[in-house]
Amino acid sequence: MIWTLLSIFVISFVYITLNTLRFMLTMKGYRNLAPILSVLEIIVYVVGLAMVLNQLDNVWNIIAYALGYGVGVRVGILIEDKLALGYIMATVILPSTDSELPKILRASGFGVTQSQAEGLEGDRLVLDILTPRNQEQRLYGIVTDREPKAFIITYEPKYISGGFWVKKVRRRFRQ
């Protein structure tokens, strides 16, 4: 019985980990890899579900499946975080318009577009920075080290085309 429960847990865990990764790949535009992963995902899903449905009167099978599902979601998210697929767009608003941060970021390999803005308390310097997600923490570190009072907001762009970023950012941060 313990092997059956462990098998159900592992199958559910593998299924939902694949499901989570496939969903994230789909959202990030990996249109060829996501369908391939979905084939494997469904095979694992059908096998696991069949094991549970064949013994629906055993509540432990259902619990093992549910636990595998929950752990699989968490692990899928952790894997995607480690892969850091895609890009982020960071908008950094600086309280001073004469900051050296744009030069420092450019020297560190980041593409920076800067503009002037007016905030509640006066003029501000606004930086728009596109970077691969695997450089996100490095970007935060540079910004907060040089400008502790900076306001930072990030989001994931769905579509990127043209300009300096597309050609150079990919080359610059390749690992």
Automatic annotation (TrEMBL):
The entry's keywords: Cell membrane, Membrane, Transmembrane, Transmembrane helix
Residues in DUF5698 domain copies: 20-77
Database matches in InterPro entries: DUF2179, DUF5698, UPF0316
Cellular compartment(s): Cell membrane
Entry annotated with the keyword Isomerase: no
Ranges that cross the membrane: 6-25, 32-53, 59-79
GO CC annotations on file: plasma membrane
PANTHER family: UPF0316 PROTEIN YEBE (PTHR40060:SF1)
HAMAP family for the chain: UPF0316 (MF_01515)
Similarity comment: Belongs to the UPF0316 family.
The name this protein goes by in its record: UPF0316 protein IWT30_01151
